[in-house]
Amino acid sequence: MSAQALHYHQVTKHHFNRFARSLGYMDWATQPNPFRRYAGAPEIPLSRDVVAGERSYASLYQRHGPASPFDDRSIAEFLRCSMGLSAWKQYRESRWALRVNPSSGNLHPTELYLLRQGDVYHYAPREHALEHRVRLDRTAWEVFTGGRDGLLVALTSILWREAWKYGERAFRYCQHDTGHAIAALRFAASLLGWNLTLLPRWSDADLSTLLGVDRDNDLDVEREEPECLAVVTAGDIEPWVSSDPAPLVAAAREATWAGRPNRLSSDRVPWPIIDETAAATRYPGVALSIPNAPTPNAQPFPTTNSQEVLAREVILKRRSAVAFDAQSGLARDYFLSMLARLRPGAPPWDAIDWPPQVHLILFIHRVEGMTPGVYAYLRDPAVLDEWRSAMRPEFLWESVGEGLFLLFPSDVMWTANRLSCDQDIAADGFLSLGMIARLESSLSERGESFYRRLFWECGMIGQVLYLEAEAAGARATGIGCFYDDAVHELLALSGERWQSLYHFSMGVPIEDTRLTTEPGYAWESKA
């Protein structure tokens, strides 16, 4: 296999004495427009109704809740609670939008497309509207769906939106954001009692054709990189997983498309290694249908107050913290419950078809009843012997909960701060953590396209932690800047078998009182 993904990963590491290549300054003149639109495509306003607003936060992790009907109101709510705006912030003359799905630097490279009854739409989050791109041959849609009710959702990445700020490391962040979006979509589906899973038969080339993002007459605008396609249905997902993409791809190839994508920047800086890595990691699809990986029944979680918190409120109030108070603590029971949400068997993990490849190294600062120090959390207990043999022999591996082990007791606030690019937010919360992925062997066994999926898994973990923090009355933030090999050296991980892909922290936030906040949509303002 090509070694492009591993090469890219090494080249884009941050080190104590140098960062991965970027422009080195903020070129505000070329800042991308955060909203893609299709000029000339019919715009369809979406319902503003609240659906399933009474559902509890705990219900998001149930696989078979009461299903809402597949109608315009519910589909609008699905989009609003996954990819819509959560708030507008303003500081003096600057005003910017926040979204339900997180993004590194609030840059939002991820675009969403929706297919229903043969129609292809682009979601415009600022307007909460659909842009109708094309109507595919209805016979092709019927052949693909077999007459089943449901819809398809697809994600793409505009790589330039992240590269504008972060340079060569941006491809990593786009994949984090895709993972966050997958989990956000899965939770929104769960809110409505629906199922959602990725469709493994679809290659990125076929998906690009289906969405109309491979059209040569759009070459002068920022291109969209296809990421994934998922089915959303209240029924059985297996027929959708097995269905042959060919009829829809052929119909899309012959269709007449409406709308032209807007240009987001006046100019762009080329980053060849990003383009090369995107090409090397495109998913080829599978020739035959494959079932989702077996998932155990969801384990009971320790009792928390999550039954009393409303799911929709947690989803819409999610924010990324910018600073923590450096003194508050987290209850041990809630901490253990939070970790349990990361085990396979319940949403959002039923959206993907591979077993856990990412596990956690935690820097515990202030969790009540727990010794500060470095901990390991194994999302798959089978990895225990492998991790113990790969790490420092002096680590304790003292079991303190299901899958949770104390490695080294110590005040690790300075260590967490230093490893995460000297950012106080890694030291001032309850905890911070690194997501450690099985990299080299995963790519060898599954191909280079799995490089993206490892980051998706990290983003999904991050989305669970974001919501868990909000449900606990706290806040969290993803950390993309960390000194890669310094993390590995701390643990004595050698080679490329295990690599840190994403950092995260959680605590009680300090709000920036200089900023004003408005609802994501004007109609949601309280009288």
Textual characterization of the structure:
The protein has 16 helices and 19 strands. The chain has 527 residues and is an alpha+beta fold. The chain folds into 2 domains: 4-280, NADH Oxidase (3-Layer(aba) Sandwich), CATH 3.40.109.10; 320-507, NADH Oxidase. A hairpin with an 8-residue loop joins strand 12 (358-364) and strand 13 (373-377). Helix 3 packs antiparallel against helix 8 (246-254), helix 4 packs across helix 5 and helix 5 (170-191) crosses helix 15 (450-471). The relative contact order is 0.16.
Radius of gyration: 22 Å
Number of strands: 19
Indicate the CATH class of the largest domain: Alpha Beta
**Helix share, percent:** 25-40%
Distance between the termini: 60 Å
Strand content: 15-25%
Query: So what's the overall shape?
Result: globular
- SS-based class: alpha+beta
The biggest beta sheet is recorded as: 7 strands, antiparallel
According to CATH, the fold-level topology of the largest domain is NADH Oxidase
Count of the separate structural domains: 2
User: In DSSP terms, counting alpha (H) and pi (I) runs of 4 or more, how many helices?
Assistant: 16
Instruction: Identify the CATH homologous superfamily of the largest domain.
Output: NADH Oxidase
Mean pLDDT level: 93
**Unreliable sequence segments:** 289-304
Order of strands, widest sheet: 2-7-6-5-8-10-9
Query: Which second-level CATH architecture of the largest domain applies?
Result: 3-Layer(aba) Sandwich
